[in-house]
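hey so u asked for the seq, here:
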Amino acid sequence: MAGFRILVVPAVEGDETIDTTENAIHPPNATGVVMRTGGERSIVAHGGRVWSCQLRGKLKQGKRREQTVTVAGDRVVLGALQPEHEPPEAVIEEVLPRRNRISRMGTRRSGGNIEQVLVANLDQVVVVQSLTEPDPQKGFVDRLLVAAERFEVAGHLVLNKVDLVTESALQQDWDYFAGLGYTVLRTSATSGQGVAELAELLRGRTSILMGASGVGKSTLLNTIDPDLALQVSTVASRTGLGRHTTTSTELFPLPQGGFIADSPGLRGFEPWDVDPEEVRDYFPDFTDGAQECRFRTCLHDQEPQCGVKKLVGAGKIPDWRYAAYLALVRDLKDRRRSLRKGGW
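ran it, structure tokens below
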């Protein structure tokens, strides 16, 4: 089980306590929660223990539309349990239907036409953006919040490393997201600012922290729960970008209740299952302006008499927000054209 951190986890709501007597080694419908997947095995929380699980062969058959069969957060049915082993072992017989997920398009290596699910069955997405070291990436926050909107998951924004910037930088642009209904927290693992508020936001919920490498996701989690001891790194001076420390999404129990998924740092993000024509639906600040568009199919780009562009011109929708929308639409169109041609 090289590469897995074994954690003592609380029993997950809905799973069944395991009877380890000789006549109950194969209990019916034993369910658990996937904490992490790597290679052909998954770590699953069940009955207050963590189990090393392999997939039943039938789950690996057929054409795969996702990069992995199971992901962190999946609810799974276990069979062939061997609780006497250390760690205990089992077989994943079934992956139960997901109530939601956060996904992006696969990498170039996969050809792009495959779904990379980061986490399943979550309550909220917490987007972490550093205010410096590395500098904010324009439009990146918008893309992550679009993914949350697409799968009907609550979205929040954490602005980290506030101790390293001026007061004016703290206020610049970011409160616009609060006006759209997103929670906006300002945090610093160094000074402790906002850490208690972040811990309370995570309490009792299943959450994923998402952001670029080096923005401080793992450092914030270590501050909330030092027992996690997640690996952290500094920002590369040559590029100004963070180095990857988290290599796969892993679910961790939190001392205040709930679970947190620490995801790999992202250098780019194109949400899965979003057509270019649908992007407008996931920008809630476009709704009012869209009612004034001449055409119902208006993409708020080159069309005349566009209500959204009118709001942009009046300063009611910031230029940077509109630019983020156009960039995402353009990238999704480019991806679609490339896939139709059979290459990337």
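Residues 319-340 form the longest helix (22 residues). The CA atoms of residues 209 and 293 lie 36 Å apart.
lmk if thats what u needed
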